[in-house]
Amino acid sequence: MQTRRIFRCCWKKAGTISGGTTRIISLASKELPFHDMIIWDRAVGYNERYDSFTPCYEMILALRKSDDAKPYFNKDAVRLPYNDDKIQTYLRDKRYKDKAARLAHLEKGKYATNILRVPSLKGSSKEKAGHPSQKPIKLIEQLILSSSRPNDIVLDLFSGSGTTALLAEQFGRKWIGIETDKEYIDIANARLEALRQRQDSPLFKDA
Ligand SMILES: C[S@@+](CC[C@H](N)C(=O)[O-])C[C@H]1O[C@@H](n2cnc3c(N)ncnc32)[C@H](O)[C@@H]1O
User: 50, 82, 98, 205: which sits with the fewest CB atoms below 10 Å from its CB?
Assistant: First the structure.
């Protein structure tokens, strides 16, 4: 019997929420305390409107369970590596006398900011599985690694092609995926099955 599949379901608290991301964010912030606003910088703009600048980012709202809840956050899990040139430049900084300690520090990489720059998926991307707004693995990976521990439960109420479930499983988290559209559920379950067949390989990553 197959287990750990995405099931068809409709997540609804009280009727359909409509009115775009900002309205959903405003409604959600009324229910739970605000923690942070993270920006996904998609790197490439998309021509959705002609009466303003071309949109190039999406908002990711982080909320707390309660006012005094202390959310888990692992900054070290999502450090960004410096390239070799940067490391060599920083090593020349005369303020740091202990070069070995300085190198060890630089090799850990820098802390990521709350602007996550991850290019959105192109049609030709190897990651593309058939969902029109599929999220890049690199984006969801950073969210899961920074905000959950192994064996935590990751819930995605709008699962689509299952990117969240895929990454949660890859990193040893439990997960729950909810999605209304049968076509996307099939895609998600196929991606999960492929992952289980190739546990040792990277997740269909580009480059
Ligand atoms: C932005 S997409 C998610 C994309 C996903 N993160 C991925 O990487 O493939 C949102 C998904 O939510 C689903 N959806 C919309 N309303 C829903 C509801 N009320 N309950 C469950 N799923 C819903 C849509 O069918 C759509 O696939």
Answer: 50
List pLDDT tens digits, range 86-114: 999 999 999 999 999 999 999 999 999 99
The more confidently predicted of residues 139 and 200 is: 139
Q: Check pocket membership of 179 for ligand 1, CB cut-off 6 A.
A: yes
Residue to mutate (ligand 1; options 159, 166, 176, 195; most atoms within 8 A of CB): 159
Q: Is 133 in the pocket of ligand 1 (CB under 6 A)?
A: yes
Specify the 3-state DSSP secondary structure of 59.
Answer: strand
Delineate the domains of the chain, giving CATH numbers in brackets. 14-71+113-197 (3.40.50.150), 73-112 (no CATH)
> Is the pLDDT confidence value at 177 over 70?
yes
Strand residue runs (E) in the chain: 7-8, 34-41, 57-63, 115-117, 153-156, 174-179
Residue 19: the pLDDT is 58
